[in-house]
Amino acid sequence: MTNNLVSVQNIAKSYDGKHPILKDINLELLAGQIVGLLGPSGAGKTTLVKCIMGMQSVDHGKIEVFDTPMPNRQVLGKIGYMAQSDALYDELTARENLIFFGNLLSVAKADLNKMIEHAAQVVNLTNDLDKPVSDYSGGMKRRLSVAIALLQSPHLLILDEPTVGIDPELRQQIWQELKQLKSENKSIIITTHVMEDAEQCDYLMLIRDGYAISQGTPSELKEKFGVDSIEEVFLSAGRDK
Ligand SMILES: Nc1ncnc2c1ncn2[C@@H]1O[C@H](COP(=O)(O)OP(=O)(O)OP(=O)(O)O)[C@@H](O)[C@H]1O
């Protein structure tokens, strides 16, 4: 067993066999690490996380999760994943959604109730839990999706743009929870185009047009480019490319 929970080696990916979407991507994720994939819309972040989970095949290179070559159904079942689009039952209340997804986790009912209360509190939905999801705003649906992903508490959690439509205060609250999971040695991959999110990651891959234009810890990257913020790193790295 290596220390790497996820190992991505020299992968390339196209959807049509002609136009590469990911080009020579390398990434290692350790236990207890939060890795951020940062890049503009269309850069290839979602494609990369889908390749990591084995939901998309790669044209070249190798991906291992928990020391197992992907794709692998059993490993996929152990990864907590929040997709970019909310997969919720609109006609059910938020609580009913949480119970539905929680029941897939085979935990005792009393434990599930506690887990639901905790997850709802992290995303500030406690007072809206009994409203139907059809009455929710876009941001509330996003928060409910985050709560569902948090319920599972897996060793590897992949969150595709969890903070879209979420206000800064609540974003901090979600980050506190992610850091709590990290302190329990759990690992997280998060995609984002929000610089404040990027600053909080342990390790960043900056992606543009399918290339990893730079990667390292936030402080390594700032030092490398001689700048004070990840936003400036991104701009400098893009110019260099
Ligand atoms: N199933 C697909 N078939 C063909 N092309 C696709 C498919 N999914 C994504 N793409 C293309 O791959 C490129 C990268 O998309 P991807 O969704 O990975 O980017 P992203 O960085 O996650 O963007 P966003 O921040 O908008 O979600 C885009 O040009 C997109 O149009």
TrEMBL record:
It comes from Pediococcus argentinicus. The keyword ATP-binding applies. Residues 6-234 form the ABC transporter domain. Keywords: ATP-binding, Nucleotide-binding. It comes from the Bacteria. GO terms for molecular function: ATP binding; ATP hydrolysis activity. The keyword ATP-binding applies. SUPFAM superfamilies: P-loop containing nucleoside triphosphate hydrolases (SSF52540). This is ABC superfamily ATP binding cassette transporter, ABC protein. Coiled coil: none annotated.
